[in-house]
Amino acid sequence: MSEELVLWHDFNVSLVTASAGLLGLLFVALSIHVRVLSTRQNAELRAVARTIFLGYVLALAIGFLALMPQTLSAFGLEVLVVVLGATLPFAAAARSGLRATGVGYDRRVTVIQFIAGFVLFAISIAASIGVFVGEAAALFFVAGIGVLSLVWGVFNTWELIFRVQGLDQP
User: Fold this and answer.
1) Total tally of structural domains belonging to the chain
2) Domain span at residue 60?
3) By CB distance 3.0 to 4.6 Å, which of 20, 43, 62, 87 could disulfide with 100?
4) pLDDT 10s digit of each residue in the chain, 170 long?
């Protein structure tokens, strides 16, 4: 295992634990409001929920991959593949979410959520390329991506819960 990755072991265990816990809580929150989220008119909210899910899964994948015994270049390549793979469903969710109407909520919040997501993906791609070429300092950016994915996911989960709550009136 790469010496650089060994130094990040405890951080990555924490990242995996936190992202798995938050992912489980997201499922609970979405299950409580599944009726509202499944209506056709709430496509924007479903798109936001998908991006939150992707953020948590991205952090989980980064943590798991960093815990595998491997070289720094192999880890960088794996993170690059995961990030590029997650870009497609994120772009589809952004397209769906930005085209949706009828939620009765300030659209600027949704636009900011998706723009921040695209920025995070761009930084993730650059950081994973840095790790792939053997730049150990890029691990700080990869770690930051994991933490930002969790923090941004918590913020978006909070926003989503209160947006759905306003629509979940009998």
Assistant:
1) 1
2) 3-167
3) 43
4) 789 999 999 999 999 999 999 999 999 988 988 888 888 778 878 888 899 999 999 999 999 999 999 999 999 999 999 999 999 999 988 887 777 665 556 677 778 878 888 998 999 999 999 999 999 999 999 999 999 999 989 988 988 888 887 776 65
